[in-house]
Amino acid sequence: xxxxxxxxxxxxxxxxxxxxxxxxxxxxxxxxxxxxxxxxxxxxxxxxxxxxxxxxxxxxxxxxxxxxxxxxxxxxxxxxxxxxxxxxxxxxxxxxxxxxxxxxxxxxxxxxxx
Length: 114
Prior knowledge:
Elements: E1 3-7, E2 10-12, E3 18-25, E4 34-39, E5 45-51, E6 57-60, E7 68-73, E8 78-83, E9 92-98, E10 103-104, E11 108-112
Parallel strand pairs: 2-11
Antiparallel strand pairs: 1-3, 3-8, 4-5, 4-9, 5-6, 7-8, 9-10, 9-11
């Protein structure tokens, strides 16, 4: 059974940083693409960043370029979303997904406010 568990969300002031983690089980991390999706209050889901099984970034939302990075640790079967220079518009529930967004973990809430 494929399971994804996201963690690391919380409250941060504008300009701050957070690192989200997604622990994966039930499949070999390096064999699948992984994507972070976010959903802001009152808005639809938004693809943020994607990485393929080889570790290359395949998608990056324009509004997070230069601020967010995605990476993976095959040994830990975990991938990460490093978020810097956070802004209020980044406030959302963040979800990790795998296999072309077939599998979703429970979200972790990121709140950016002063």
